[in-house]
Amino acid sequence: MNEKIYDLLNDVKTDLNEYESHPLSSKEARQIETRLLQEVRSMKKENRKNNKKATFLKAAVSAAACAAVLLTVSSQPNAKEFLSGTFQKLIAKSEDEKYAEEQKELYTHIGKNSTQLTSDTGETIVKEKQTQSQVLKAKDAGVTVRASDVYCDGYMLYYTLVLETENKTLVPDGVDGIYTTPNKESVPSSIRIDGEYDGAAHLVFQKQQDGSFITVQNCCLYSQPNPKTYRNGDILPIDIDLKQFYGVDYDKHDKEGEYVLTEPLNGEWKLSIPVTVETEKNRTQKINKEDNQVKLISVTKAKATLNLELQEPDYTASPYNDKYNDPDIAVKDADGNFLQWAGCYEKMNEDGSRVHYITVIDTEKEGYTLEVTNKNVDGELIAQIDFLVER
To answer: Are 159 and 193 in contact (CB under 8 A)?
Structure first.
């Protein structure tokens, strides 16, 4: 039944030129969106009850018209109200980069679902969870580092750090970025996520148009042999201890071809960020569709990501004959856009098969396609599985 409903919606053609474009507030936009979603839900119920294709098609056309208005609203500048100043800077900076559209999509989806950190963000957390006090800003040697935004859905963790300084040792003319530990001789900085050491903190702060420097960090929470399971409201602490900064000019290279760095600036910058895990919007759907021994088991929709669980064969065996056991895996939406990967983890079995967990940035469509291609042999398609994500 669901497939028929989606087919009907896909057949609806709407001339957007019929509708006037009026700038609406974000509150008005959310009200329209809520009414649209309520209408679609009622249409689905009515269709299941009456099983009348004509009734649903008539309602679908009405919903499409409402969607056209919402589409106009979403294109207004007021959409920026959903993003923090940090993510707005990142999007503005990415416009001149090679993968501008991909960066914009990532920052928009993660940004609008992130929590902006303030001095009182963790006040309730500290009292109720009895965790250590939060430290969102650290200043030393003329450099200020502050935590800006966090996103955590139990699968992926994103957090942004902003660095501001006028220290001429660190940012002489031409400096494009700031590193923490660019080489083995650097004083090691560290990051601990939920008590687990996340390795030396190789952070890269990119210069923004206003002269500040920003880094976006992510952590795939299940990409380990025994991943932790987080529930809604759990606290995931991030402890950051930075010891040293280097400025870098991407237009200058030394004799070995390495970037030219400034002299190191030493100090101590410690941040402690209690992150609230938000899983209340997570919805898992069993798919259980198979093609050529590749099986899509389930899809979990989170706030800004889709999390796929796959069962895959041993690709070194016939008929795949891929000695590297490393095919190309891609997810496309109904418009043919490839979804960005955000994280993955493979659990290998003794027989060479595996369970593969993949996180991609959600484009908020309903129809998707999983494609597996034998890139190391002949590039031919191994498996193609279409699936729907309920909204």
So the answer is: no
136: nearest Cα among 153, 160, 111, 152 = 160
Report d(CA 191, CA 194) in Å as an integer.
Answer: 10
- Phi, psi of 229, rounded to the nearest 5 degrees: -105, 125
Integer-rounded Cα Rg, in Å, for the chain is 24
Per-residue pLDDT tens over the stretch 285-327: 999 999 999 999 999 999 999 999 999 999 999 999 999 999 9
Closest to 319 (Cα-Cα) out of 381, 385, 365:
381
pLDDT tens track for 169-208: 899 988 999 999 887 778 788 999 998 876 667 899 999 9
CA-based nearest residue to 87, from 250, 274, 214, 178: 214
The confidence score (pLDDT) of residue 150 equals 97
Going 278 to 88 to 69 to 29, the CA torsion angle's sign is positive
User: Can you tell me the distance from the alpha carbon of 207 to that of 379, in angstroms, rounded to the nearest whole number?
Assistant: 39
3 state SS for the chain: CHHHHHHHHHHCCCCHHHCCCCCCCHHHHHHHHHHHHHHHHHHHHHHHHHCCHHHHHHHHHHHHHHHHHHHHHHCCHHHHHHCCHHHHHHHHHHCCCCCHHHHHHHHHHHHHCCEECCCCCCHHHHHHHCCCCCECEEEECCEEEEEEEEEECCCEEEEEEEEEECCCCCCCCCCCEEECCCCCCCCCCEEEECCEEEEECCCEEEECCCCCEEEEEEEECCCCCCCCCCCCCCEEEEEEEEEEEEEEEEEEECCCCCEEECCCEEEEEEEEEEEECCCCCCEEEEEEEEECCEEEEEEEECCCEEEEEEEECCCCCCCCCCCCCCCEEEEEECCCCECCEEEEEEEECCCCCEEEEEEEECCCCCEEEEEEECCCCCCCEEEEEEEECCC
**Helices 53-74 and 2-11 meet at what angle, rounded to 10?**
60
Report angle CA 383, 389, 390 to the nearest 5 degrees: 155
- Taking alpha carbons only, the member of 156, 160, 167 closest to residue 146 is 160
pLDDT tens profile 81-111: 579 999 999 999 988 777 788 889 999 999 9
